[in-house]
Amino acid sequence: MVLEISLCLPLPASPVVGCRAPRLCGYKGLDVIDIKWNEQGLIPAIVQDAQSGAVLMLAHMNEEALRLTLVTGETHFWSRSRQALWHKGATSGNVQRVREVRVDCDADTILLKVDPAGPACHTGEYSCFYRSLTSNE
Amino acid sequence: MVLEISLCLPLPASPVVGCRAPRLCGYKGLDVIDIKWNEQGLIPAIVQDAQSGAVLMLAHMNEEALRLTLVTGETHFWSRSRQALWHKGATSGNVQRVREVRVDCDADTILLKVDPAGPACHTGEYSCFYRSLTSNE
Fold first, then answer.
1. Span between the terminal Cα atoms of chain A, in Å
2. Do A28 and B134 touch (CB under 8 A)?
3. Would you tell me which residues 111-130 of chain A have a C-beta closer than 8 angstroms to some C-beta of chain B?
4. Average pLDDT taken over every residue of chain A
5. Which DSSP state fits A105?
6. CA A89, CA B82: separation in Å to the nearest integer?
7. Residue B116 pairs with which residues in a beta bridge?
8. Which of A12-16, A30-34, B123-127 has the highest mean pLDDT?
9. CB distance A131 to A64 below 8 Å
10. DSSP β-ladder status, A55-61 and B96-103
């Protein structure tokens, strides 16, 4: 399934001013990269803090969530438990401003580099990966 | 499904010498964390460079892959395409030495912090996420 996106992603670091050509103002090749959605029409998305490099969470996107993420510049996901679109931080205020969207070699995983406005985890932890299996930190 | 692991993970930075108690030498609570395997008996595992913080790849583990990863200190996965256990780097030499294993709040995603011996990607790229959708870098 090819996702065609013609809008520019308003990157926080460089607001889209005088945007002329799509390739110059925020996205690259989404129209030519054939995203591999899984059987449920979803793709896993890793969320990473653009500043610290910490991995914050893993969530899933459907086509609409990816489109909204690119158009609004804030992360949107598909909640598999609630079977609904989910604008991260819509209620808590802990939105994630998107700095970059990357895709892996197989085009079956997305990497989102974000500036988080608050904790990523519903527990209140900065990252969902707050438990280590291999150290006592 | 509770995975009981009683062996120590030989962390590269601190080789297990004089290892006495499991809780002091490499893992924490795998026996009490109820890993949530999906319908296929798998859990997604994010692989991150322990030094640079770069996200290298996303792969999947079954119970045996996680056990082997913890026991050997090198990443093992379950290849969904080949339907076989996969010791990363076994043929290429690009093994990933595990520095830390973390689990997320829902216990349905693993984060592996590794020292990679070479490129993570089968294309020869350092990271599988070498394509950006949002910049021309």
1. 43
2. yes
3. 111, 121-123, 125, 128-130
4. 82
5. T
6. 38
7. B96
8. B123-127
9. no
10. unpaired
Selection from B134, B119, B137, B135 nearest residue B57 by Cα = B119
The pTM is what?
0.81
- Are A133 and B23 an interchain contact pair (Cβ–Cβ within 8 Å)? no
**Which of A23, A33, A121 minimises the CB distance to B131?**
A33
The predicted complex's ipTM stands at: 0.81
What phi and psi, each to the nearest 5 degrees, are found at residue B4? -100, 120
- Mapped onto helix, strand or coil, the DSSP state of residue B115 is strand
Stretch (H or E) spanning A77:
strand A76-79
Residues of B within 8 A of A132 (CB-CB) are: 28, 100-102
3-class secondary-structure state, position A69:
helix
Whole-angstrom distance, CA of residue A74 vs CA of residue A100: 11
The vertex-B30 CA angle with B17 and B68, nearest 5°, equals: 65
Token pair, residue A126, equals: 């900065």
Q: Is the pLDDT of residue B8 over 80?
A: no
**Do the beta carbons of residue A108 and residue A61 sit within 8 Å?**
no
Q: Over the stretch B48-104, which tens digit does the pLDDT of each residue have?
A: 999 999 999 999 999 999 999 999 999 999 999 999 999 999 999 999 999 999 999
In the block, tokens 């001013």 appear at A17
Alpha helices in chain B (DSSP H): 63-72
Pairs of CB atoms within 8 A across A/B: 131
Taking residue B63's Cβ as centre, other Cβ atoms within 10 Å add up to 15
Could B101 and A133 be called an inter-chain contact, meaning their C-beta atoms sit closer than 8 Å?
A: yes
